[in-house]
Every structure is written in structure tokens, then in C-alpha cells.
Amino acid sequence: MSIFLNKDSKVIVQGITGGEGTKHTARMLAAGTNVVGGVNARKAGTTVAHVDASGADVELPVFGSVAEAMETTGADVSVAFVPPAFTQAAAIEAIDAGIGLLVIITEGVPVKDSAELWAHAKATGGKTRIIGPNCPGIITPGEALAGITPANITGKGPIGLVSKSGTLTYQMMFELRDLGFSTAIGIGGDPVIGTTHIDALAAFEADPETQAIVMIGEIGGDAEERAAEYIKANVTKPVVGYVAGFTAPEGKTMGHAGAIVSGSAGTAQAKQEALEAAGVKVGKTPSETARLLREVYQSVA
Predict the structure, then answer these.
(1) Domain ranges, ordered by start, for the chain
(2) Does the annotation place 107 within a ligand binding site?
(3) Annotated binding residue 285
(4) pTM
(5) Which CATH architecture has domain 10-131?
(6) Which residue in 11, 102, 159, 250 has the fewest CB atoms around it within 10 Å?
(7) Is position 271 annotated in a ligand binding site?
(8) Residue 254: per-residue pLDDT
């Protein structure tokens, strides 16, 4: 099984005719994703040519709105490749249409916009699960990809992965390619995001095919500390962790996550201590984390 995305998911791409949308639509199709169309109001009624996983030519319809795309195709997932200035409007359009899963890849979305679109999603009933922004998306190997994660890193297996960092998602998938993954989800490192570590942990705990979990965090904020509390109270499956930023100087703003470390709060050391207090083994490097995962997996396999 998997979480949030599977072979039956019907995916549309907001921004399908743009450069990034075009490139990654092709890669999602090659990964086996059931991409059923895209959205660009200025090019509604046209089609875009692609090749599916079997090598067959496909013509994907371009719709004027998410609602129209959903009504025509039955889409339940949207992946947004929209410039930062227009991301909030695109997200609200998808939320108002009632899409089940919205993956926002865009980097550089203003925090105010992210907060407002998230508040809108909650105010309208929380029907739309949001992943991102500023994230690589989600992949269920061998079934579907909604985002930009390279699909050839690893195959299907019993490990669940949730990560703040895109590149560390890819590295951990490669490190554990001998085991494989049920689902790998990159939640993004922005201050305001949709799906959190805790959301993913809860879903992996409920997924019978996921036998062990890797959680990757970063300095800044308290998301990992809150995840540690959740793990201690609710997660029965083995969890290993990695926290990027052990060598970061205190008080320094770090690029990727915009993380600010103040005192002990938000430091890698504080996060490691919180996770270890919850029974999570924490590696100092991605490779050490992968080794720890193999060890704990052997105990449940």
C-alpha cells in the first residue's frame, strides 16, 4: 500500500504548458503516473503531446480551470508548477474545486501567501491535503509520482520516508534502495507548509505495508520536537531520524529552510535529544541514518 498517492490517482498539472510543467509532466508520465490533463486558462481547449510509460504517444487536454479538469477527467490530485506570484491564486482555485491532494512544488512563495491559502483550505472544510510549497512532492515507487523526485532512485519496499529537504530525500532513497519505499514524501522546509511530519507519521503508522519510518528534519523551528512527542505517544513502528545542520553556527540564517537558531531552541542537538527521548535513533550523517534504519528494520522484518 502507500499513503496519499497510488496507481489509481488521477493527476492534473497546473502550469502544464510552462517549462517546468512540461519537463516534469514528462517525467511523471515516465514514472507511470496517470496524468490526465493540465490547467492553463490562456490555453484552454488545446492539448499537449507527451509519451507515457509504455512509450505510447498521448495528447493531454488543457483545461481552463481545475474545476473543469476535475469534472471532465475525474482528477483527484493536482501538481502546481506556478510562479510564486500566482501560486496562492492557483492553490485557492484547486482548493475551491475540492481537489483531494494538492502538491505545490514552487519555491519562493511568500509566507503570507502560504499562510492565507492554508487558512482558506481549513476554512472551507479541510477537504484538500496540501503538500508543500517548496517541496519535491510525493512518490509511491512503481506506482505514481506527483512532483519532481527522480523515479529511478529506488523501487517499492517497506520503508516510509518523510523529509523537509528535497536533496536529502533523494539521498536517503538512494542509500536505502536495497530495501525500497512504500511512499516518500518531501514536505518542504518553508515556515508555513501543509502536510507536516506528524501527518505523514500518522499515515505511515496506519499503513500496513510500511514497516519502518525515516524522518528527516532541519535546524530551525520546533517541528521535529513536536514530531518526537507524537512518536512517543502514537507510533509503534520503528523510526530513525536525521537532522541537517549539526555544524550550523547559532544565530545564523541558513539558506534552504530559512532556519534561525536561537539559543538551544531549534538546534540540531536539541532536536536530536527530543527524538532520542522518544525512542528514535538519530544518525549524524545520511549514511549513518541509513545504517541505523537497516538495523531497526531487521528487528521487525
Answers:
(1) 10-131, 153-300
(2) yes
(3) no
(4) 0.94
(5) 3-Layer(aba) Sandwich (3.40)
(6) 250
(7) no
(8) 54
Q: Which portions of the chain are predicted below pLDDT 50?
A: 255-258, 260-263
Gap between the Cα atoms of 240 and 14, Å rounded:
35
Q: What CATH homologous superfamily does 153-300 map to?
A: Succinyl-CoA synthetase domains (3.40.50.261)
120 catalytic residue (yes or no): no
Q: Which residues contact 153 (CB under 8 A, 6 or more apart)?
A: 170, 173, 174, 177
Residue 219 marked in a binding site: no
Q: Looking at residue 66, what is its pLDDT?
A: 98
Would the annotation count 250 as a binding residue?
Answer: no
pLDDT at residue number 264:
53
Pair 144, 11: CB distance under 8 Å: yes
Q: How far is CA 168 from CA 109, 136, 137, 161, 247, in A?
A: 21, 11, 13, 11, 16
Q: What is the pLDDT of residue 250?
A: 63
Same fold? 10-131, 153-300:
yes
Please identify which of the residues 24, 50, 197, 256 carries the catalytic annotation.
256
